[in-house]
Specification:
Jelly Rolls; 8 helices; eight-stranded antiparallel β-sheet; iron ion binding; single chain; 2-oxoglutarate-dependent dioxygenase activity; 338 residues; Phytyl_CoA_dOase-like; Phytanoyl-CoA dioxygenase
Length: 338
């Protein structure tokens, strides 16, 4: 590291320690996160991009109070089938595809994230596998993550151009400790973040289902020692963060719920909703799921793997998806059926 870079890093460290951020910037909050948000007036004047398949007024009120919504029976079964066929093709022929994958097993330490072809095929079919950004390869993945029902709700809460940030595909439950997304999945505006959890099968109680604390998006933010975002300068750990959430959510009266939803439903949650992966009590029970994070073009004008280049854009159902800066001809290599 050069002298100038070292000085900049020290200056940033001092700034974070002296003036740590303790909350989202009120000036850039999505409209619905303001306490005075008038949902009735908004719905009256809002023109959705697609015909609504849910009660927008009801869902927005539920979101404002609880920090999440469930859109029931909105995703066609054939779209889910087509996406899982792409996943199976990837796992069956990993040598053909350029995709970063993570397997959180001790035998792969210290490099648990690597190109998919560098993992044994049998391990790709097991637990603790996370397929990162498979939507770049799969057109069906792009169509699924930008389904009109999801787009209508995201455009309503953001009132800006929606941009895809990343996607994660799982076969089994993650068993991830309690966390909020915004400290790690970061854009220029941390509050411009939402996620969709799309079950690719009916979810059972023994599969390590997702859990969340209802209303926890209103919990005071955790301080990592240098503000509300976690980075290399933070002095507090993810486990301390999880402990803070698990103790303070119940103390504030935020009920813990387990997500048992069905194929065709979608959970959309707020960037500050505390959630995690439950314990897998049946080792043979899968929890096939597709998790997608979204921001706005104002907050994310770049692909996160190349912060300084103007990204190439694709558009699906009105949502911008930046092409992966390193995938080249692998972008959309798995074509969607017309």
């Amino acid at each position: 590291m050069g002298l100038l870079s070292e000085l900049k890093k020290k200056a940033l460290t001092v700034k974070e320690q002296m003036l740590p951020s303790t909350e989202f910037d009120a000036a850039t909050l999505p409209w619905i996160d303001h306490s005075e948000a008038d949902i009735a007036a908004f719905v009256k004047n809002f023109t959705p991009r697609f015909p609504l398949t849910f009660d927008l007024d009801e869902k927005l009120r539920f979101w404002q109070k609880n920090g999440y919504v469930i859109l029931e029976k909105v995703i066609p079964q054939e779209l889910i089938n087509a996406y899982w066929e792409d996943v199976e093709e990837l796992i069956e022929h990993p040598e053909k595809y350029k995709l970063m994958t993570r397997i959180d097993l001790p035998k792969f330490e210290p490099v648990q994230e690597r190109l998919i072809k560098d993992f044994p095929k049998e391990d790709l079919k097991g637990k603790y596998v996370k397929l990162n950004d498979f939507h770049h390869l799969s057109e069906t993945g792009k169509n699924l993550m930008t389904h009109p029902a999801i787009v209508n709700f995201l455009e309503a809460i953001f009132q800006q151009q929606v941009v895809v940030m990343q996607s994660l595909t799982f076969m089994f439950g993650s068993q991830q400790p309690t966390h909020q997304d915004f400290p790690w999945v970061t854009a220029k505006i941390p509050s411009h973040l939402a996620a969709a959890w799309i079950p690719l099968e009916d979810i059972t109680a023994d599969s390590g289902p997702l859990y969340y604390y209802v209303g926890s998006h209103k919990l005071p933010k955790f301080n990592f020692g240098n503000g509300i975002l976690s980075n290399e300068r933070s002095t507090r750990t993810p486990l301390e963060f999880a402990d803070y959430l698990d103790k303070n959510c119940p103390a504030h009266g935020f009920e813990k719920k387990t997500l048992l939803i069905n194929r065709g439903d979608v959970l959309i949650w707020h960037s500050a909703l505390a959630h995690g992966g439950g314990l897998i009590t049946n080792p043979d029970s899968t929890r096939k799921s597709y998790v997608c994070h979204y921001s706005t073009k104002k907050a994310l004008p770049f692909h996160r793997y190349n912060l300084h280049a103007v990204p190439k854009e694709q558009e699906y159902h009105g949502v911008v998806i930046y092409e992966h800066p390193e995938f080249g001809e692998q972008e959309n290599i798995l074509k969607a059926e017309k």
